[in-house]
Each structure stands twice: as structure tokens, then as C-alpha cells.
Please model this.
Amino acid sequence: MRYQSNNLLGIGLMILAMLLFAIMDALAKWLVSAQMSAIQLIAIRSWIIIPLILLMLTAKGEINEL
Model:
């Protein structure tokens, strides 16, 4: 039973990840079509992702102090 619940969790997380990648791609294409440069787009994406990664690592206990 334990393995089945882990499999379902993995499937759910994979579906969520694919949905988020599709949203990110659509948003990037829309912003580039609105005359935003690629460098600005990469910077904005990095500013959003870095705090999320730090939060995830802190939650897992891999970062003790920020």
C-alpha cells in the first residue's frame, strides 16, 4: 500500500510540473511578443525561482541558516 501512494504522489507531481512548464512557456512567449527582451525575461524568471528553491531547501533541512 505504501508504494502505491508514493506512485500516485509521483504521478500527481509530474502532472503538476508539466502544467507549470506549459504555463511558464506560454507566459514567456506572451512577454516576448510584448517587446520584452530575452535578458529581462531570464532575469525575472530567475528572481522568481531562486526564492522558491531556497524555500524548498530550507523546508527539507538542507539549509540551516540563510
